[in-house]
Amino acid sequence: HVQLVESGGGSVQAGGSLRLSCAASGYTFSDYCMGWFRQASGKEREGVARIWSHASPTYADSATYADSVKGRFTVSRDNAKNTLSLQMNSLKPEDTGVYYCVRISMGYWGQGTQVTV
Questions:
Q1: Low-confidence ranges of the chain (pLDDT < 70)
Q2: What's CA 13's distance to the chain center, in Å?
Q3: Contact (Cβ atoms closer than 8 angstroms) between residue 77 and residue 63
Q4: Degrees, nearest 5: CA angle 41-14-42
Q5: What are the CA-CA distances from residue 71 to residues 2, 16, 65, 102 (Å)?
Q6: Taking a C-beta distance cutoff of 8 angstroms, is the pair 91, 14 a contact?
Q7: The sheet that has 3-7: what strands, in order across it?
Q8: What is the SS3 string spanning 59-84?
Q9: How many C-beta atoms lie closer than 10 Å to residue 115's C-beta?
Q10: pLDDT confidence of residue 18
Q11: Among residues 92, 87, 112, 76, which one has the least CA distance to residue 15?
Q12: How many angstroms separate the Cα of 58 from the Cα of each of 35, 50, 62, 67, 111?
């Protein structure tokens, strides 16, 4: 079965950095578009970053970002290790929330990891 397990969350001062990781299992990781979403307390979940699979003829391994994190966050994937990562730099208080690793197709979600700035 599909399993997504996030790690790397924590508390950091504004301007600091964190790196989130997501270990994927139960499917062929490299075949699927993956994303990071977040949810702040009292707010709806929002997409943060997305990275396409290498199988996409047009967007192979390319990434897109929410405007609020462009230039500060970088999403990457290691298909050999079935791992999705999110490098977060220049963190702001408004980045606080629970961050989720998501397999876009079929909507599989991890349990989330808390980031507090």
A1: 55-61
A2: 20
A3: no
A4: 5
A5: 31, 14, 9, 21
A6: yes
A7: 3-7, 18-25, 83-88, 73-78
A8: CCCCEEECCCCCCCEEEEEECCCCEE
A9: 22
A10: 98
A11: 92
A12: 17, 15, 9, 22, 31
Decide: residue 66, CB within 10 A, 0-12 exposed, 13-18 middle, 19+ buried: middle
The 10 Å Cβ neighbour count of residue 54 is: 13
Residue 117 has what DSSP assignment?
-
Closest CA to 83 of 17, 8, 16, 12: 8
Task: Return the structure tokens found at 101.
Answer: 């690793």
**Integer CA distances (angstroms), 33 to 41, 54, 80, 112, in order:** 27, 9, 15, 18
pLDDT score recorded for residue 58 = 67
